[in-house]
Amino acid sequence: MNLVPKFVINIKSMENKYSHLTAIEREKLSFPARYLHRKKLLKSNILDFGCGFGKDVEILSKKGYKITGYDPHYFPQYPQGKFDTILCFYVLNIVFLENQEEVIMNISQLLKPKGKAYFAVRRDIKKEGFRKHYIHDKPTYQRLVKLPFKSIYLDESCEIYEYQHFNQIKHQSSPCIFCKPYPKLILLTESTLAYAILDGYPLTKGHSLIIPKHHEENYFNLSFSLQSHCWQMVNRVQEIIGAKYQPDGFNIGFNVNQAGGQKVKHTHIHLIPRYRGDNQGKKHGIRCVIAR
């Protein structure tokens, strides 16, 4: 007997390959673009991430803004360099949750240290999930989105969030250096619930830390969803470090409690690149943390 609910089977079998069809052809600026333009929040070098057919890029360019558009379906040339302002309008509503975090990590990497990104999400979605598109007759996906960033606009149709790198936000006074990271730190990437930095006392070139924003000393006390969230970021940071330093291997792990070598009382995962010739003797790796 198959005990897996049918709705689970159906969702697992669906692919989110037609959601780009939700892009709308317009003649005017989108509402979020008009709002940010009116509030004078569009600064210097701008990227429209997930620009659809690119109408906002076209109109804002005519208004004198320096703006680049990227969309994996319509403008697939991935942007290079860093940007002062990044726009991401209604993209997160049409991607799965795990893909949402990939989008946010991409934007975090493309944003200058003191830059700002603006996420617009729909608030008028009546039903989450797949539906048949009324024009294209294809299954497109939509979901409600809530982000832990500063909300600067909200009505029944739209909410706009303002995002800054975690270490650029004024946090409440805290003795924990990971809850209130130094503004001069360069974040490797960030998602809704975690961020990554280079270790201040690296064992090897590219030694990185993946840190949940929620303060918890013991890794095993984190929720399973937050643990999974952190490991998704480990994968991303491995790609970043791999591309920059070309290491020959990695050690990955975390310390728990004093006996386990934990010094900072805030959970963090170490991603340590390894290079040929950096080992002492023939024995190395996780099994040799304790000398035998």
Automatic annotation (TrEMBL):
<dbReference type="Pfam" id="PF13489">
    <property type="entry name" value="Methyltransf_23"/>
</dbReference>
<dbReference type="Pfam" id="PF01230">
    <property type="entry name" value="HIT"/>
</dbReference>
<dbReference type="GO" id="GO:0003824">
    <property type="term" value="F:catalytic activity"/>
</dbReference>
<protein>
    <submittedName>
        <fullName>Histidine triad (HIT) protein</fullName>
    </submittedName>
</protein>
<dbReference type="InterPro" id="IPR052908">
    <property type="entry name" value="AP-4-A_phosphorylase"/>
</dbReference>
<dbReference type="InterPro" id="IPR019808">
    <property type="entry name" value="Histidine_triad_CS"/>
</dbReference>
<feature type="domain" description="HIT">
    <location>
        <begin position="174"/>
        <end position="281"/>
    </location>
</feature>
<dbReference type="InterPro" id="IPR029063">
    <property type="entry name" value="SAM-dependent_MTases_sf"/>
</dbReference>
<dbReference type="InterPro" id="IPR011146">
    <property type="entry name" value="HIT-like"/>
</dbReference>
<feature type="short sequence motif" description="Histidine triad motif">
    <location>
        <begin position="266"/>
        <end position="270"/>
    </location>
</feature>
<dbReference type="InterPro" id="IPR036265">
    <property type="entry name" value="HIT-like_sf"/>
</dbReference>
